[in-house]
Amino acid sequence: MNRLSPRYAPGKFEFKLITVLVLGSLPFLAACGAWRESPPAELDQSPPPIVVEKTIIETVVLESPEPEERPLTKDLVVCLGEEPDSLYRHGRLSRAGVAVQQAIYENDFTRFSWEYQAHGLEKLPDFGDGDAWVSEVVVAEGDRVVNVAGNVVVLVPGEMVQTADGETAVFDGSPLSMRQTSAEFTLKPRLWADGEPVTAADSVYSYELAGSTGTLAVRDKVLRTARYEALNDLSVRWTGLPGNRDALYFTNFWEPVPKHVWGEHDPVGIPTSEMAAHYPLGDGPFQIVNWEPGQYIYLEPNPHYYLADQGYPYLDSLTFRFVSDGDQLAAFLLNGECHIATQDALRSNQVDFLTEAAAVGLLQVPFTTGTVYEAINFGVDSWDGYGDGQGRPDWFEDVRVRQALTMCIDRQGMVHDFLNGRSQVMHSYLPETHPFYPEDMAEWPYDVQRANALLDEAGYRDINGDGYRQDPRTGKLFRFTITTTDLYQLNRQIVNRVADNLRQCGVVVNTDILSSENWYAGGENSKLFGRRYDLGHLALPIRQEPYCELFASWEITGPGGVVHPGTGQVYTGW
To answer: What does CATH list as the number for 372-543?
Structure first.
C-alpha cells in the first residue's frame, strides 16, 4: 500500500454579502405666523384652515462594490507516520525522511517498472553510447582491487583475482592486467534554492563527504571507487576499482550537495547540523520554510527550480504533518485534514476499513505489492557441527522432499489471512513482472494429496501409525525447526502457519524465534550465514538486479583461503 488520498479534497467557499442600505428622509412642512396686537375681531365662523403635511419617503439602494476574488491556493497536506530524525543526504533515512527529501532535492535518476530513467541528469551512461567503457589496467602489489569473492582488498601474494581475460588467478607478486569500468555523467543546468548553480564540484564534494560521514552502504560504494572527478562545470567521471563488477555502474553518481554553503564547515559536524539535518539547501521543487518539531514541516516552492518555467511544482505549498496514531490518521483523511497518507502511517489492521471507505467514494486507496518478499530457505547441506552428520537425517537432499514440503504449505492462504489478499505468491526470488523472470518457471501449488504421495515415493512413511513420518534408514521422527526473528508479528504468523500446514503431511515442525541480531549475525557460528538451520524464514528486498550472489557457490561458508578443487576458486570464508 503506497498512498491514500481522499477522492474529494475539501473546497474553500466564499460568501458575497451585498448590503442594501435604506435611507429615509421625513421633512415636516408647517405653517406658522407672528403675534401682533390688534383690536378684537369679530369671531370668524368660517371653517379653520387645513394644514396639509406631506411626508416623502425616498428609498435609495447603494450597491457595494463586489470584493475582488482571490484565487484558491493549492495546498497539499501529506501525513507521515513519524517525524524524520534527519534529512542529511548521506545518512540513514526513515521512510518519512525519504518522502521529505523527494520534495527538496532533485532526483538525478528514477526507477520505474524495473528500468532506470535519467531525470536531473542529461542521460544515464551506456556502453553502447560510448560514455561508459571497460579498460585494461596493470595492477601491482599494494594496489586496492576487488577479488573474486567481491571483496575490496589490498593486493598481496596469494590473493585470488580475475584477470583481464576473465581467468581466475592467484596473485604471485608479479604485475597483472585486470578490468576496470568507467562512466561519465552530465548534470542538467540546475540551481540551488539560493540561486547558485549546481555544479560537478558539488557532486565531487558529495562523494568526499559520503566517504567520511555516510552510512555503511554509502561508504561501501565509495570504497569500490578508484576515482571520482569533475571534468568541467557539469560533468563528472566515475572509475571503479580493478575487478569491480557492477551491473549498476550507470547509477554511480553522487547526489550534489551545496559546497558553497557546506564547504566552509568541518565535515565531521555537518551530518548533525541544522543546515544539513533540518533545513538543507536543495535544488528540488520545494524548500523548507518552517519545521515545527513534533507537528509538521512546511514547504513552499523553490523560486529557482530549474523547471519552474514549465509550471512546476503545481502546488502553492506542501505540508508534511506527523501523525503516529493510525486511527487518528484515518479520521484526518476522512475530514480532509490530511490529503495523502504515506504507507508507513497506516496499519495492516485498517485495510478493511480503508477498503470500505474507498468502495463508497470517501477515499482513494491504491494497493500494490510491496518491495519485500517473504522467503523460506531449506538448509539442504548444513555446515559441520550442525544437522547432517550430527544426528539429523539429511531430510532435504532429495528434491522430491523439498517439492512436497512446498506443496504442503498454503501460501495463498497466508496472503489472504495475513496480507488481506493484497499480495501474491512468488515462485522464485523474482516477481513475475521482472524482465528476467523465466517463462518456463516451475510452480508448486498447494496440493496436500500430491505432496503426501511424493513423500511416500521418497521413502518417508508413517511406520508406527502415530500419524507422523519417520526416516526409513534410522527410524527417526521427521522433525525439524523453522527459524525467524521477533522483529515483526508477521514473522511469527508465517512460521506458525508453516508448522500447522506441514502436520498435514506427517511432519513435526518446531519454531525458533530469535532476535534479528542473532539470526543475521555473521561468523562461523551464525545461525543463518553459518548454515546452522533447518528451515529459515527471511524477508528480502526485491531488487532490480537478482540476488544471485546469495545462492552462488562462492558464497558457501568455509574457512578462508581454502580453494574449491573443481573450480579453483576460494571459498568465501568468514
So the answer is: 3.10.105.10
